[in-house]
Amino acid sequence: MGVAAKIAPSMLSSDFANLASEAQRMLDCGADWLHMDIMDGAQLDGLLFDNVVAILLLHFVPNLTIGAPVIESLRKHTKAYLDCHLMVTNPLDYVEPLGKAGASGFTFHVEVSRDNWGELVQRIKSKGMRPGVSLKPGTPIEEVYPLVEGEYPVEMVLVMTVEPGFGGQKFMPETMDKVRALRKKYPSLDIEVDGGLGPSTIDMAASAGANCIVAGSSVFGAPDSAQVISLMRKSVEEVQKNY
C-alpha cells in the first residue's frame, strides 16, 4: 500500500464571511485537510510607471489573501490540519506568526528559498509545523530534490498544476511529468497537487502518483461537495494500493 490519500479543499474558494462554518462543512463532507493560500500581494497604487516592474519583483503573486490573523481566528473553531501554502517572497518572515497562529503545515516556494531553505525548514519544525516545498509549473523538478534529501528535509512537495496566484484556472497536464518523477524517486513522499483539480482531472493526477489533492471551485461549487471529495479519494486510493 502506498501513501494515504489526503483531500484538502482550498478555502480560497469558500465564503470568507462564514469561514468557520465553511471549514466545518468541508470536514463533514470528508475532507482530511483544509488548504489555506497565503499570498503577499502586489502594491501598485500610486506608483510611477517606471517603478511598476521593480515593485512587482518584491511580491510573489499579485493577489493579497489571508494571513496569520485569519489562521488564528479559524484555529479557535477547528482542530483540523491547516495546510498553509505560502506564495510569498520572504517566507522566513511568516514562520513565527503562523506557528503562533496554529498553522499545521508550512509549504514555501523553492523559487524564493534557494539560498536559505535549510534554515527555513529548521525554523518551521521548531514552531511545530510540518515543512513542505512547492514549485511553479515552469520550475524544473530537480530543484526540489536537495530539499527532500537534505540534512533538514521537507516532508511534502507541492507541484503547482496552474500558475500560482489565482483560483479557477485550467489544469496543466504537462505538470504530471514532475509528479511521476517524484513518485518514482520517492515512493513514500507526500506529493500534493494544486490547481484545476476536480472530477475531470483527478485520475490524471492520481495515476501520476499524487496523493494530496487540493481542490477549490470543483468542491465548493459542486451541488454535492461530499460526492466530489469521495470521488477524488477513491481515485487516489485505487492507484496507491498498487504501490
Percentage of residues assigned to helices: 25-40%
The biggest beta sheet, please? 8 strands, parallel
If classified by CATH, what would the architecture be?
Answer: Alpha-Beta Barrel
Please tell me the total number of domains: 1
Q: How would the global form be characterised?
A: globular
Q: Give the strand tally.
A: 8
InterPro entries: Aldolase_TIM (IPR013785), Ribul_P_3_epim (IPR026019), Ribul_P_3_epim-like (IPR000056), RibuloseP-bd_barrel (IPR011060)
GO molecular function: D-ribulose-phosphate 3-epimerase activity; metal ion binding
Catalytic activity: D-ribulose 5-phosphate = D-xylulose 5-phosphate
Keywords: Carbohydrate metabolism, Cobalt, Isomerase, Manganese, Metal-binding, Zinc
Question: Would you mind describing this structure in some detail?
Answer:
A divalent metal cation binds at residues 35, 37, 85, 194. One of its GO terms (molecular function) is metal ion binding. Strand 7, helix 8 and strand 8 (212-215) form a beta-alpha-beta unit. Helices cover 35% and strands 18% of the residues. The longest helix has 16 residues, at 225-240. The protein has ten helices and eight strands. The protein has 243 residues and is of the alpha/beta class. The protein has a single domain (6-241), classed as Aldolase class I (TIM Barrel, Alpha-Beta Barrel), CATH 3.20.20. It has helices at residues 19-28, 52-56, 68-75, 92-101, 117-126, 145-149, 176-185, 202-208, 217-220, 225-240, and strands spanning 6-9, 33-39, 81-87, 105-109, 130-135, 156-160, 190-194, 212-215. The protein has an eight-stranded parallel sheet with strand order 1-8-7-6-5-4-3-2.
